[in-house]
């Protein structure tokens, strides 16, 4: 009796189950239906990560050797954060918020403003300064109060009172050195 049951059990295993060979047609979503979420959910998850693209306000501060700080503000659409950071690899992050990044960098040159409108001159107190425009008419860009002025001969003093046009960074350094008191006391 034990042998018959075993044969029936083995014979039952060999039978193939019925299979359904009918196929359903699969529909892929078209472009219009992709604009709506495929799975709708009533639950929302709060996150600090915004979906791409990300809109950022980017502020760039360039610090020039003549004391001028030029600030440029732009709005950028960020598709890839790796590309964004690579674009500003020469800059230092001053501050960062979710929708704003402030970069700064030191520029080893005088500013375009000084190249275009800069003059060395004397302030009312007799200090050497860089003016935006002619001394007496333009505003002071940078004053060199810690730099004592050598006693000037009348020709040199007259040059500074009229203003010495700044031509380049080398000229800027040359004039600054020329009028600075470098003699040991």
Give the N-terminus to C-terminus distance in angstroms.
124 Å
Backbone structural class: alpha+beta
Helix content: 25-40%
Number of strands: 8
Instruction: State mean pLDDT (0 to 100 scale).
Output: 77
User: CATH homologous superfamily of the domain at 112-179?
Assistant: Bypass-of-forespore C, C-terminal domain
Number of helices: 6
Oligomeric state of the chains? Answer: single chain
- Find the CATH topology of the domain at 112-179: Alpha-Beta Plaits
CATH architecture of the domain at 112-179: 2-Layer Sandwich
Tell me the name of the CATH class of the domain at 112-179: Alpha Beta
Strand content: 25-35%
Protein name: BofC C-terminal domain-containing protein
Domain Bypass of forespore C C-terminal: 108-180
Pfam families: BofC_C, BOFC_N
Domain Bypass-of-forespore C N-terminal: 57-105
What does this structure look like?
- Helices cover 26% and strands 28% of the residues.
- By secondary structure, it is an alpha+beta fold.
- The strands form 2 sheets. A 4-stranded mixed β-sheet has the order 2-1-4-3. A 4-stranded antiparallel β-sheet has the order 7-6-5-8.
- The radius of gyration is 37 Å and the shape is elongated.
